[in-house]
Queue: 2 jobs
Job 1
Amino acid sequence: AWELEYGLNRTSSVIPGSSVPEQSHDFDGDGLDNLQEMGVGADPNNADTDGDCIRDFDELTFATLKQIPASDAILFADADNDSVADGEQTDCGSNMVDIGNGTDGTNNDNTTAPTIPEAKDPLDSAAARVLLGIVGVAMIALVIALVAVLLGGRETARGVVKDDSFDLAIAVAQEAAFGEEENESENATSDGVESPVLDGSLTEEPKILSSRDDAVGRHDGVHGAPLLDGFEFEGWTPQQVQDSLNQGWTVDQLREHYNKGKQ
């Protein structure tokens, strides 16, 4: 019905010679396309549908400020019912500032806009002040601790005793001399010791000994007791030596007695 009233095509949105569909055209140049004009019941061929000298696009702004339906602002010259034409109240839409939303029949051009309260200072609260005080005390304590550490380090440095008699150069020279003496003593010791044979060769032929060549038997449980053959007592027979031992004489006593007899 709205298309028929204003001469638009109800069955097709195609406009010959144009790539833009009919609903997207703005035939009257009021800033609203045909689809928007239909939504508020405006005349798509008239930029000022209600004839109050306010363009239809500006009527939408007026409706928002006055908190009234958009279709009322489009279709009625006094949409807010304040007995003052909307065009007169807004200077034909050129003055939309501070028009208010009153309906007392007076011009509301000088209505004062609501004021925005100032933001409160976050430090005005008691909790914020307490926290700020704690942070301040902590910073002071930190500074005091740093000063104490610095002063303590200086006192420690003052207590260090310096040995003025110590000379590093002399100590190094003495250490070097001591090392040379040790090397010389080691060389002298190695010169007096016969070097071991490392290649397995022998300087002389080994002598094969028989157990019969041992003058004294070994106490290993194999050869038995020591063999006392009296070879130390020249002129005595082994039987004489053995008889003396059997009588209670010791070898040392026999040797002493033997030596006295030779003298």
Job 2
Amino acid sequence: MDLVVRWSPEAAEDLESILEYIARDSVFYARAVAWKILDISCAIPGQPFIGRVVPEIGDMMVYLDLRVREKNPATADELSEAVQEGALMRIRPVLMTVITAFAGLLPIFIFDGLGADVMRRIALPMVGGMITTVFLILVVIPVIYCLWEGRRFERPA
């Protein structure tokens, strides 16, 4: 089982402009940037699930960024409140995605039959990945966003 991650020629040429774009504090095209940087070969097992996590992270960043731009926070506390509101807007779609994935994998864990043991070994990492994705999208990404954006506010002495 080979893991092949390679740079596409176009991404290698445009890497500097992509990094400048990211540094300018715009996340509206996070999904396109992530796929442009990583040209993931089909040799990666579970690639469709990687393809589901990247858009979720991009959507989360867009929701957070839109909420922060709407609120235009003047203090770190207002920023934290805006980020929390943006994260709350994503709970329902993320949970619907995870519940749908669990519902699709449930028959693998319930029924015994020919090949069930092999399918369980394949499905169990998917379940773990979905749980990790929920934690990443609803907790880690908002915290990182809040820390990154919070740099522009003065710290009390």
